[in-house]
Structures are given as structure tokens and as C-alpha cells.
Amino acid sequence: MYPGDAEFGFELLVCRWVETSWPPESTRRSAVLVSRQLGTRERRWDTVVVECDPEGLAARRRFGERELDSDLLHVVRNAPAEWSWYRDALPHPGYPWRYVRAAVHRAADREVVETRRRGNRIEIRRVAPYPDWVRRIVAVENKPDLDASAARALSGQLEHDVETALADEVWVATESTGSRIEPALLEDLPVDVGILTLSFDDDVGAAGEAEGAEPDPTGTVEWYPSEVTPADAGRDAERRRRRLELAERAYGRGWRSYHETMRPDCRHFELRRFGRALVPHCAAKRRSQTAAECAGSCPEFEPEPPAWRSRGWPIEGGPGKGIKRLLRRRRADVRERAIDTD
Question: CB neighbours of 235 closer than 8 A, spacing ≥ 6?
């Protein structure tokens, strides 16, 4: 059983499982970036998996750890190898050039292009070619309890995902029931959507225990997805642009850290180990809380005592600060492992 009684805990464990075990039922690990709650204006996915070219992913590091938005991508991808006036070097963006000029200045501030002024003109030059680092994008919907009503509500969204084909594959992840035939197989889901069942060990330990001390979760493919990539995908510039923007957001955010939307500065906030994942735990509620519950409006919220925040080693600012540093390090470690994997 996953921690807590909401999809939030299941979602955290699915993301961690993907980071360590993707692709499913394969002994060959892929270089992947995983992000939670990411998508477009029309559609947001629970989990987005970006399968990467390791060499391209390593080359992407030259442009920093922050994401490149659409305006910055327009500049970086088209910046010339030799000095050139930016309006000669860049294709017309379809909007006023003054916005491109602002993006050029932002790119220079982040050192992802070089600029110089010649008379009244700003010239640009690339610092490196922008790499082709994205291989495939996989969308995963997390529904631990996929009963009939949940399947009906999800079916329309999955059909939209298959039709728009922004992702190359679409999956539904649900909790394993241990039945010979998983109930998810009997629900009315699009045939192109894969079904993945996950079993999690419920022996929750303290966050200080050794990495991997508990058994890893297991994932089983109940139904393989179809590749929904359009036949003309290589010629669809708009699709390539949207996918690259999505991948850049995943690169910058990684597995969106829950400490950004929760209150680790509360004296009741703890981390508990669940398999190889660290999940939030509320000592006041005595269970894993959701992001919506863990806010300043929570009746159990108590700020850390000032004495906690003023201590030095090993806390350096209080337990909440320590939790944030720990989760940031884990995100950085995941990115490093992805680059070293092929």
C-alpha cells in the first residue's frame, strides 16, 4: 500500500520508480528526466518521462540547469557560429522584434549566447550548438484505485492524449491488486494506452536509513501501449517546438519537489523512507499528508522554534532547511545518473 490515502503519495512513488526502473520490464536502463504535474495549457499530466540521448543531455548542461523558455529557445537554437546582427541571424518569430531583443539580453545575462554591440546594432554568437537531446516523451496518468468511475473520467483525457500525440506513448499507472486479471484490464480505456501496475512495500523506515535498505517497488506491464507518434512527426515543426518546450520545463524542474508547495519549516514535518523514495510525513496527523493539507492554513501548523533555526551543524538553519537541501541534492544526483546512463 502506498503512503497516505490520496493519489499524491502514489504519484511520488511512481516518479521515484520511473527514475530508477524505466523502461519497465527491461534490463537496459534509459537516461530519463522525470517531472510531476507538467503539460500544456490544454492538458496536464501526472508524470512526464523524457527519454534522453545521454551525450545530448550532457551537452545540454552547457546552457545551465534552468529551463529555457520559448523565447530563449528561439535565440539559442538559431544563434550563429559567427558574429551576426540578431535580426539577420534569427528567423522572424511572428511577433515584434523588440521582444526578441529582450530575449537576446536575457540569454546574454544567463551566458547561453554571446553578444556585442557594433554601432547601433546588437550582434550575437552561440556559445555552443544546442543539442538534439530529446529522444521520446512519455505521459503517465496515476490512478492507484482505477475503479469504473475513475476509468470513465479518465478515458476522455486519454483519448485526447492519443489523438494529439504530443507524447510518443501514454500509460496509466495503478496499484496492483494481486488478482490473476487486474481490474484495470477490464475497464474501458483506449486500446493505445499502456497499463502498468505497481506494488510497493509498506515497510516505512526512517529517512536516515541507508539508501535501498527496503525492497524496491515492482512494476508489471499488464498492457503494452502503442506508439502514437504521427507518421509526419519529423516534418511537423510546431510539434517539435512544443515537445522541446515541454522537455525544457522538465529539465529545469526535474521531479517537481514537493517542498516547494508544502511547509517543511513546520515542526511536525518529517521525511520517511518508503522503498527508495523519501515521502513527506506529518507527525501531528501521524500519516503521510497531501500537498493541499500541508499549508500555513493547517490547524496543526507550528513554525520551527527559533532555537532550531539558529543552531549550526548539522542542521544549518533548522530541519526545514536541511530537508530542502537533501531533496535538492537528490534531484542533482538523479540528473547526474541520467547523463551517465545509456
Answer: none
The structure's pTM equals 0.85
Ordered DSSP codes for 69-136: -HHHHHHHHH--SS-EEHHHHSPP-SS-HHHHHHHHHHHHHTTSEEEEEETTEEEEEESSPPP--EEE
Q: What is the pLDDT of residues 157-166, one digit of tens each?
A: 999 999 999 9
CA separation for the pair 9, 65 (Å, rounded):
27
Backbone angles phi, psi at 52, to 5 degrees: -115, 155
Residue finishing a domain among 253, 276, 307? 253
Q: Give Cα 163 to chain centroid, integer Å.
A: 23
Can you give the CATH number for the domain in which 216 is found?
3.40.1350
Query: Three-state SS for 39?
Result: strand
CA separation for the pair 56, 310 (Å, rounded): 43
pLDDT in tens, 299-339: 999 988 877 766 665 556 678 888 888 888 887 777 777 76
Can you give the length of the chain in residues? 342
Q: Count the Cβ atoms, other than its own, within 10 Å of residue 165.
A: 17
Range of 306's domain?
Answer: 258-339
Nearest to 204 by CA among 298, 287, 130: 287
Please give the single-letter amino acid code of residue 8.
F
Quote the distance between the C-alpha of residue 342 and its chain's center. Answer: 19
Selection from 149, 152, 141, 188 nearest residue 38 by Cα: 141
Report the domain count for the chain: 3
3-class secondary structure, 53: coil
Max Cα distance, the chain (Å): 75
Grid coordinates standing for 210? 541507508
Q: Are residues 197 and 279 in the same domain?
A: no
| CA atoms within 13 Å, Cβ hemisphere of 203 | 9
157 exposed, middle or buried (CB, 10 Å; 0-12, 13-18, 19+)?
middle
Q: Are strands 134-142 and 169-175 parallel, antiparallel or unpaired?
A: parallel
